[in-house]
Design brief:
- The complex is a heterodimer.
- Chain A has helices at about 10-40, 45-75, 80-115, 125-145, 150-180, 185-215.
- Chain A has a single domain, classed as Phosphate transport system protein phou homolog 2, domain 2 (Methane Monooxygenase Hydroxylase, Chain G, domain 1, Up-down Bundle), CATH 1.20.58.
- Chain A has six helices and no strands.
- Chain B is α/β, with parallel strands linked by helices.
- In chain B, the strands form two sheets. In chain B, strands 6-7-8-3-9-10 form a six-stranded mixed sheet, with helices on both faces. In chain B, strands 2-1-4-5 form a four-stranded antiparallel sheet, with helices on one face.
- The longest helix of chain B is centred in the middle third of the chain and has 14 residues, at about 130-145.
- The two termini of chain B are about 25 Å apart.
- The chains are: A mainly alpha, B alpha/beta.
- The interface of A and B includes residues 5, 7 and 84 of A.
Chain lengths: ~230, ~260
């Protein structure tokens, strides 16, 4: 996409600052998921607590970025590519904030599981695997956003199906555990919530990839069957 | 053209169409081979930086350029339903201006009363019935959303009206002769935001029966009032399309740069 400079330098600066803060917010959210999963696999309760408490930073970034976007709309009346960019950023920020909530949810579940004593915990190898896939989707989406890369975004959209499949497989496995040993039920249910949170993270990353395509091409590919 | 645009364009009647239109001020070629439709009962906006030829293009439609020697047209502007080229030598420019009205940047009422301003075109047309003229004047003032404000001072000088009222009076004057096409040359650039809003609202109402072609420097205005937008640059038509599409997803980089405020 053409990125010649605006006649107004301040406009360029404002837009550039908003874009880089979206990436910073993405970075924070990514580290929240990673730390939440680490807390789950290692049983580090202090780490769980840190993740839970850090969520307010994600929320604050959402509020700040939304405010800056509305200010830019009021001042500049963005059109065409700029309009699509701002529109997409406002939606991206919402998805990032929700991913932050999912990370917090994972940390809370991890805390519950390990506070109870992880003895009867079913193995969480597949969960870790699904989480890696979701984190990779998120990171690649942010990369595509930074580079305005449509092809990469299309790939992310296609990858979401993989996480959905993995979620269903984790669910089947947990059902087997619960049937074999009802003592695992509480923990298994919590792991279901964690797996669901990971699956949702994949969905949010996919949404963000769709916005990248909207920024670059101006086409809305949401709720269409065929990935571009 | 996108599938949607083609679909929309094909279903619309064309009121006028420029075909390979070039225009020369002496040796200077101000318009270069422009082909573009003006859709019936729609608002078409012409945008572009100063000197791009948008006003020159607008003025071709009512042969305003004929008033100065050395000006020359090439190509055609076909007016429907006659399917006639209004630039042809045997076409009387006065006749063209009866059918194609114009409203200018600064309100320019005649130094006459409110009533006489609107009645003027009718008298020129040879209407002599006092009753018919009164009816027409009232109708035109109603249509220009001015009647309520001036009905008690129809015989006061038009100069006593505010800027916004004067501009609506000029629109009423243009409407009195039942034009088929109205040309607006930056009609609100001398008006405050309230008066501007009332003129824009008026355009919205008028397009139910008149075709409107408007030149504006204000891109937000083009986005607000028009159904179609044409972007011109240095005498070329760069892009013509449905307004919503042009402002969200222009096809040409030059258009994008202009409407987003970037250097070309």
């Amino acid at each position: 996409m053409a990125m010649t400079e605006h006649a107004s330098k301040q406009y360029d600066l404002d837009l550039g600052s908003i874009r880089s803060r979206v990436l910073a917010m993405g970075g924070l959210v990514e580290s929240q998921i990673r730390r939440a999963i680490d807390a789950l696999t290692t049983g580090n309760l202090a780490l769980s607590q840190e993740v839970i408490e850090a969520d307010h930073r994600v929320n604050a970034m959402e509020v700040e970025l939304d405010g800056d976007c509305s200010q830019l709309i009021v001042r500049r009346q963005p059109a065409a590519g700029d309009l699509r960019m701002i529109f997409a950023i406002m939606k991206t920020v919402t998805d990032l904030e929700r991913i932050g909530d999912e990370a917090q949810k994972i940390a809370r579940m991890a805390k519950n599981i390990h506070e109870r004593g992880g003895a009867q915990a079913p193995p969480v190898v597949e969960v870790r695997h699904a989480a890696e896939a979701a984190i990779s989707m998120l990171r690649r989406t942010l990369d595509c956003f930074a580079r305005l890369d449509c092809d990469g975004a299309a790939e992310v959209i296609r990858d979401d199906a993989g996480i959905d499949t993995e979620f269903r497989s984790i669910l089947r496995q947990l059902i087997t555990y619960m049937m074999e040993d009802p003592r695992t039920i509480s923990t298994a249910l919590e792991i279901v919530w964690i797996a669901k949170a990971i699956e949702r993270i994949g969905d949010h990353a996919k949404n963000m990839a769709e916005y990248v395509i909207y920024i670059v091409k101006g086409t809305d590919v949401r709720h269409t069957k065929v990935a571009p | 053209m996108s599938a949607l645009e083609t679909h929309v364009s094909e279903r619309l009647a064309t009121k006028a169409e420029a075909r390979k239109l070039s225009f020369y001020y002496g040796d200077f070629r101000a318009l270069k081979n422009i082909t573009m439709p003006v859709h019936e009962r729609k608002v078409t906006a012409l945008i572009g930086p100063s000197g791009c030829g948008k006003s020159t293009f607008l003025r071709c439609f009512n042969r305003m350029h004929d008033l100065y020697p050395g000006n020359r047209y090439e190509g055609e502007i076909i007016l429907q339903p006659d399917n006639a080229n209004l630039l042809a030598r045997d076409v009387d420019p006065i006749e063209v201006r009866m059918r194609i009205g114009m409203v200018f940047q600064k309100p320019n009422p005649f130094p006459k009363s409110v009533f006489e301003n609107v009645a003027y075109g009718l008298r020129v047309r040879g209407e002599s019935s006092r009753r018919r003229i009164e009816e027409k004047v009232e109708q035109a003032l109603q249509d220009a959303a001015l009647w309520e404000e001036v009905k008690n001072r129809l015989h006061q000088p038009a100069y006593n009206l505010s800027g916004g009222q004067q501009q609506r009076l000029c629109i009423a004057r243009a409407l009195a002769t039942d034009p088929e096409l109205l040309l607006f040359d930056e009609p609100t650039s001398a008006l405050d935001p309230i008066a501007t809003a009332s003129i824009e609202e008026l355009m919205h109402d008028l397009k139910e029966r008149v075709t409107i072609l408007i030149v504006t420097h204000n891109m937000q205005q083009a986005a607000r009032v028009s159904d179609f937008t044409a972007y011109m640059y240095l005498g070329d038509l760069i892009e013509f399309g449905i307004t919503d599409e042009l402002f969200i997803k222009p096809k040409m980089k030059q258009t994008e740069d202009y409407i987003t405020g970037r250097f070309g």
